[in-house]
Design a protein that fits this description.
The protein is an alpha/beta fold. The chain is built from 21 helices and 14 strands.
């Protein structure tokens, strides 16, 4: 019998989207627009899974969860939540929710969550009042005893790429090792090479794979806020600390903590992280008690840490403590045979998300794409394909769908003046060339201004100022166009 799923959300568009998507997956779907309606339906129907928004008019998603658990109903519950409510969603998990997914979410991500939740048995779900509560993981429980017995989603992706076979072998050794989560791992590679994929594969083969994979970008937050996010804080530790907050080290349980862009971490916070790695203990900001850390720490950077150490921006002792196991991911230009595998993977993903049926690339087009150096690596390849899928919705990828510089097999940043002018539709001012290059670099770095500024060789302040000018120019031109239209 097909699994029965109850979807609860007061937004009609989200309900309709989930009903249509999950019905296509073969599930039997029931929907409700309020908590009261949802609870009434749980009294008359046995559901295998409940997906509910956290904030609802009247009875909230948390109250739905509590009512189910009070009735002895162990049906898995997935919470949908806006970004600002993540702390509340984590509290809901501690009261018995299976997992939460932040809004806005991708339908593909929701489908994976649903499949994982339906595989979980009722006995594995925490219930309200337990003295020991662990955060559930997105990886289904398995009886594997080593990495050699189990290829999860991410490890499987690495294994099928010829250019990453050496990394797959390292991961299998890590999975088979008895050292456990005490072994920290450092992943290095250019921006966009897939460091997060490797980090998630490490989580899959770790003993704590049933607990959460928690990630944070060290370049995205100021040092004081980053410290609070990683270590947590006590009430009153600083001006806005109105309540105790648990940090990543606590929330991860025996899972994994992924510190992306570790090279951007401030030197004072580096010293504190070093002490944690040495003692496996930490304190919340403003706290007095030492707490044990059980999670594995995985760090990643696209910086040359040797240069950062020499310039005094990174601690030498922290580097050696992090790189107990060091993984270097080669850029995509050095593994052209991976391009076909990645294209097919992204096509399958986008076809599923957008309900398309785009066929794989033919041999002639593939050869062109393999010759391009992909300076933005896997991220650039993914972004280019996604743009094509959204704008063109092609049945078959054709050369005309791709930018000319990709088919020509060269990086536009390294193009000669003559080539650049030849590819342009006409001559343009130098300022316009600069604007296009800045916007292209931001796109290839997923709008990460720190990375973009570093690639462009300018300061973040200069980049912000240029973007402000571009935005103002767009607004002015819009106003002029509007005036012209009225005239």
């Amino acid at each position: 019998m097909n699994s029965r799923i109850l979807i609860v959300d007061d937004e009609a568009t989200i309900r309709a989207s989930l009903v249509e998507s999950l019905t296509r997956e073969g599930y039997e779907i029931t929907s409700a627009e309020s908590g009261e309606e949802a609870l009434a339906k749980t009294h008359s129907t046995v559901f295998d899974l409940v997906i509910t928004d956290l904030k609802l008019p009247g009875v909230s998603g948390l109250e739905i969860l509590q009512a189910l658990r009070n009735q002895g109903n162990a049906t898995p519950v997935i919470m949908m939540t806006a970004y600002g409510d993540v702390d509340t969603a984590v509290s809901a998990m501690r009261n018995g929710a299976y997992d939460f997914i932040p809004k806005p979410f991708k339908l593909g991500s929701m489908k994976k969550q649903v499949r994982a939740a339906l595989k979980a048995t009722s006995s594995e779900l925490p219930v309200q009042g337990e003295t020991e509560i662990k955060l559930t993981a997105k990886t289904p429980k398995t009886t594997h005893s080593s990495a050699a017995d189990f290829d999860g989603q991410y490890l499987g992706m690495i294994k099928v790429c010829p250019g990453l076979q050496h990394i797959a072998r390292i991961l299998e050794k890590v999975g088979n090792s008895r050292s456990g989560n005490d072994t920290s791992i450092l992943i290095q590679g250019e921006s966009g090479t897939g460091k997060e994929i490797v980090a998630r594969a490490i989580h899959e083969i770790s003993r704590g794979s049933r607990d959460r994979f928690m990630e944070i970008n060290c370049s995205a937050l100021p040092e004081t806020l980053l410290e609070s996010e990683v270590f947590g804080h006590e009430k009153g530790a600083f001006t806005d600390a109105k309540a105790r907050k648990e940090g990543l080290f606590e929330l991860a349980g025996e899972g994994s903590i992924f510190l992306d862009e570790i090279g951007e971490m401030g030197i004072l916070l580096q010293a504190r992280l070093l002490r944690v790695l040495e003692s496996r203990r930490f304190r919340r900001v403003g706290g007095k008690d030492d707490l044990e850390i059980h999670a594995r720490i995985v760090a990643a950077t696209n910086l040359n840490l040797a240069e950062a150490i020499e310039s005094g921006n990174f601690r030498n002792d922290l580097y050696y403590r992090l790189q107990v196991v060091e993984i270097e991911i080669p850029p995509l230009r050095e593994r052209p045979h991976d391009v076909e595998i990645l294209i097919n993977h992204f096509l399958r993903t986008f076809n599923e998300e957008m309900y398309l049926e785009t066929a794989p690339v033919d041999a002639k087009l593939l050869e062109m794409l393999q010759k391009y150096p992909w300076p933005g690596n896997v991220r650039e390849l993914r972004n280019v394909l996604k743009r094509i899928m959204i704008l063109e919705e092609p049945k078959q990828l054709q050369p005309e769908h791709f930018p000319a510089h990709i088919l020509a097999g060269h990086n536009p940043r390294h193009t000669s003046q003559h080539q650049a002018l030849g590819q342009a539709t006409g001559l343009m001012p130098l300022a316009e060339v600069e604007r296009l290059q800045i916007l292209y670099t931001l796109e290839m770095t997923d709008n990460n201004k720190s990375k973009a500024a570093r690639i462009l060789g300018i300061s973040r302040q200069t980049l912000r100022e240029k973007l402000r000018i571009y935005e103002q120019r767009t607004q002015d031109e819009g106003g002029l166009n509007a005036d012209a239209g009225e005239a």
